[in-house]
Design goal:
Shape: globular
CATH architecture of the largest domain: 3-Layer(aba) Sandwich
Helix content: 25-40%
Strand content: 5-15%
Strand order of the largest sheet: 3-2-1-4-5-7-6
Radius of gyration: 29 Å
Low-confidence stretches: 1-17, 554-580, 662-671
CATH superfamily of the largest domain: Vaccinia Virus protein VP39
Oligomer: single chain
Number of helices: 25
Largest sheet: 7 strands, mixed
CATH class of the largest domain: Alpha Beta
Number of strands: 9
Mean pLDDT: 87
Distance between the termini: 80 Å
Number of domains: 4
């Protein structure tokens, strides 16, 4: 290993250090072609092995965890050269380097999975944002039962669904970022659940804090588990102890920033022995000859000025707290540009960005950023796991990986569910259909503006009548319903104020007039899903309800006489984007209370934007009944599923509700 000379153009004299560049040989049981792969899989099955495949596998974090749980991973696929080399080194069978957006490769992979007898398919397909026009095209096909013309798109989550459809494995695990649940419509997740249920799978999804399963970092992932034939899945129990940063890396030797061992890729740092239970696990199965060696304990050089800044920092120091002379970046934008890890707490999330910038991961005691091995430890990769390529590639693979320990817990729970199958509870489609049918059949509603014909009617009712006694709201609604648009309300301004006086809500009357005045001056705002909540006096929850009750016009996207026609040019797509409503998943108006009772979980008290909205999405689905089911959920929260003394016996979800009361009142509220 050699170090590059100092660059004369760098005023701070940072040493540019390359390498070591690690090359990894394929696994001894690596298969070169489909024929040898199928023979290999057949031998393993004959020995009683449960087979797994890992798509979008990266370096193999999920694969490693599944093998620790008892599966044998026989197939992996990714399109990152170094990650493929890493996976091929650590796992037998077939590791493919290819673009899973290619329909031919998807069909090939699905055929291999089916013919090999793979039990579990795992994967973390990247999920890119979609235009509203693109969402509607997919939604239309979901709701009308048409299979998506897969070869017309390159969306990798669609590739994953297509493999499942063709191969029909007994179990599916999908891992992704929790942003899928933060999308206001939760479009991709709801579509996937709908299509998996249509294929006969029972589906569970949850936002998982990985530290609850022994991973020493703040890292939340969205996990979806689907079991074929309607079998139930039980989430694994949490581990009792939290693993801290120092629990994880405190045994690793001190090194200077930029230090490299002699011997290049074969070089090592001297190692003493593990102390904590986590460290002992990380050293498990290390060959005796390597018992006092640790590999890949290398990191970036440290600029002299950064070393001074690091020295002055504790785990509680923000970048903006540093003296002005120590800052190289604007502290109003980069308030947390530097972060020294807290040795007694959890690491911040290890992401692929660590390959480019290690300032978020300053060692808790040493004035440098993390080494490759330390980052791997925080992701729960054991010390015997090596990564192909230079350190930057290793960091990228580590940051992109599923923590192996999380994969192990999930794999163990899947095996338990497969070995002792039991029927799952009601699926999303059944609950959504029950809610939609109930809502459509109601003669009276406690929230009558859920059947409004214009968005302004919804906004007006929410401003004037929200939290009013149902009987009084039903009496006043016909008066407000007359004014379909803001200009109508302004025309009847005196009457609005008079109504407000009747009900003792004069300030709300003034608010309604003010909102109407603003919208008359900007009429497009009322139909703009993104900007409606920006209007003074219209909250996000009111805007979301108006969008749900009265979706924007869809005719510009798919003509009624030709629902399969696709918009082909960018201009038309942009025009369609302005016309399509997203039907957001609501987290207000009491729907979280209903979701908490039905699921038996405290989603109304946990994160409303992840746990709560995931539970709501489970009730409303994404099929043809989704909108009416959603409206039914709002009405249910306002009528039967009251905060106290719920009328469970009249609820359409009574037989599916974990919290249904056996002795609920028999009489109904008057609608």
């Amino acid at each position: 290993m050699t170090e590059a000379a100092e660059s004369p153009r760098r005023p701070y004299g940072v040493k540019l250090v390359r390498g070591p560049f690690i090359r990894l040989e394929p696994h001894p049981e690596h298969c070169e072609d489909a024929l040898s792969f199928l023979a290999y899989a057949a031998r393993l099955r004959a020995d009683g092995a449960l087979l797994a495949a890992d798509l979008f596998s990266g370096a193999g974090g999920m694969s490693f965890g599944l093998e620790a749980a008892g599966f044998k991973v026989v197939l992996g696929a990714d399109h990152d050269r170094e990650a493929v080399e890493t996976h091929r080194h650590h796992f037998g069978g077939l590791t493919l380097d290819g673009d899973l957006g290619d329909p031919d490769l998807v069909a090939h992979v699905a055929g291999l999975i089916r013919d090999a007898g793979v039990t579990l398919l795992a994967g973390g397909p990247p999920c890119q944002p979609f235009s509203k026009a693109g969402r509607y095209k997919i939604r239309h096909r979901v709701r009308t039962g048409l299979r998506d013309p897969y070869d017309e798109r390159r969306d990798l989550w669609r590739s994953y669904l297509e493999v499942i459809r063709l191969a029909r494995p007994a179990a599916v695990v999908m891992e992704n970022v929790p942003d899928m649940a933060l999308d206001r419509e939760m479009f991709i997740l709801r579509t996937m659940v709908h299509e998996l249920e249509s294929l006969g799978y029972a589906v569970e999804e949850r936002a998982v804090d990985t530290w609850r399963y022994g991973v020493p970092q703040f890292r939340q992932r969205l996990i979806l588990v689907a079991l074929r034939d309607g079998h139930a899945f039980a989430w694994p129990a949490e581990t009792p102890d939290k693993v801290t940063v120092w629990n994880a890396i405190g045994d690793l030797p001190e090194v200077k920033g930029g230090w490299r061992p002699a011997g290049g890729a074969d070089g090592w740092s001297d190692y003493d022995s593990p102390v904590t239970g986590f460290q002992k696990r990380m050293r498990d199965q290390i060959p005796d000859a390597d018992a006092h060696k640790v590999f890949d304990h290398v990191t970036r050089p440290v600029r002299p000025d950064d070393e001074v800044a690091f020295e002055s920092m504790t785990s509680g120091t923000r970048y903006s707290d540093l003296p002005q002379g120590m800052k190289r970046y604007r502290d109003d934008i980069f308030q947390d540009k530097y972060k020294r890890l807290d040795e007694d707490g959890l690491s911040r999330t290890i992401t692929a960005h660590i390959a480019k910038d290690g300032y978020w991961y300053i060692h808790p005691r040493q004035n440098r950023t993390l080494t490759v091995r330390e980052a791997a430890r925080l992701q729960t990769f054991p010390d015997r796991f090596r990564f192909a390529g230079p350190p930057s590639a290793a960091f990228r693979q580590i940051g992109n990986a599923v923590p192996p320990l999380l994969g192990e817990h999930l794999g163990t729970a899947v095996i338990a569910a497969l070995h002792e199958p039991r029927p799952a509870g009601p699926n999303t489609q059944r609950m959504a259909a029950s809610l939609a049918d109930w809502f459509s059949g109601l003669a009276h509603r406690n929230v009558p503006w859920l059947t409004a014909s214009t968005r302004w009617q919804v906004v007006s009712a929410e401003i004037m009548l929200d939290r009013m006694a149902p009987q009084q709201a039903r009496h006043l609604w016909p008066l407000l319903r007359r004014w379909e648009f803001p200009v109508d309300t302004l025309t009847a301004e005196d009457e609005i104020r008079e109504i407000a006086t009747w009900i003792g809500r004069e300030p709300r009357g003034e608010q309604l007039v003010a909102v109407a005045t603003e919208l008359v001056g900007a009429p497009d705002m009322l139909q703009d899903d993104e900007r409606l909540s920006n209007v003074a006096g219209i909250s996000q929850s009111v805007a979301d309800l108006a969008i749900l009750v009265v979706p924007a016009t869809l005719g510009a996207v798919v003509p009624e006489d030709d629902p399969d026609e696709r918009i082909g040019d960018d201009a038309a797509d942009r025009e369609a984007d302005d016309a399509v409503s997203e039907e957001p998943v609501l987290a207000g108006r009491g729907v979280l209370r209903v979701a908490a009772r039905v699921t038996g979980e405290d989603v109304d008290r946990r994160n409303r934007l992840t746990d709560g909205r995931l539970a709501v999405a489970r009730l409303i689905g994404y099929g043809d009944e989704a909108r009416n089911a959603h409206l039914g959920l709002v009405e249910l929260a306002a009528s039967l599923c009251r905060p106290t003394d719920p009328l469970c016996s009249a609820c359409p979800l009574e037989t599916m509700c974990a919290g249904a009361s056996a002795d609920s009142q028999d009489q109904l509220l008057l609608y």
